[in-house]
Amino acid sequence: MCLAVPGRVLGVEERNGTRMATVDFGGVVKEVCLEYLPDLQVGEYAIVHVGFALQRLDEESARRTLELFENLGMLQEEFGDPWEQAAQAGGEELSGEVRR
Length: 100
What we know:
This is Hydrogenase assembly chaperone HypC/HupF. By secondary structure, the chain is an alpha+beta fold. It has helices at about 60-70, 75-80, 80-90, and strands at about 5-15, 20-25, 30-35, 45-50, 50-55. It starts with a strand and ends in an 11-residue tail after the last helix.
């Protein structure tokens, strides 16, 4: 399933003529295109779907939605476990303990 998830803008920059943002989705940070919301600013919230910010959202609504998604396990389904992803990227497997 591919959700539209609320996220908070941490930073904005221009890359190759495209306005991009670093966005926090309840602890998972991703890069997002701002072509549909070019005036979105740091600290604001937006609904993001497949890497594009689509609509502004107030902070309270964003927090409630993120909490609901987390409680339902939908953030895990959408983003996966960031610790597991980091371990896999480093060529490690998680088995309850960190391998050295």
